[in-house]
Write a structure and sequence with these properties.
This protein is α+β, with helices and mostly antiparallel strands and about 150 residues long. Helices cover about 35% and strands about 20% of the residues. A 5-stranded mixed β-sheet has the order 1-5-4-2-3. Keywords: Membrane, Transmembrane, Transmembrane helix.
Length: about 150
Amino acid sequence: MDGSVVLLVIMALVLIVAVVGWLARRGVSRFDGEGEPEPEQSELDLELLPEDILPGRRATIVLFTAPDSPECALTRWMLQDVAATSAGVVFAEVDTSIRPELVLPYDIVVTPTVLLLDAGGNRAGRFDGAPLRESVEAQLIELSVR
């Protein structure tokens, strides 16, 4: 094969991998609060919250984490700050290495995963991947006006 053909094939493969990676990453952080949730997902078992955490008056933010994920640590810090600066909002963390039995029922395919619960403990939203602070705050505001 000619050297320029090999170079062209390598460049095409790199481009394909970059596009696939960009598309995959773009779909990772999504909010699933639109429309009606599936019946089996509409209520979250509040027993997944640590015993010393009571549900928030307005909302509860539940973060599913993995111990080896740097994105989880950054997301934890951000969500703790959001909860601390938002009246009636409580933060709770579920470590999937300690509570692996929750991975399948809550369809945790990527960490971090964030569930937003309303005051009654019903699932009001979901972010797969690290959400933007503005997105979380916008959903909390939407919960306030419901």
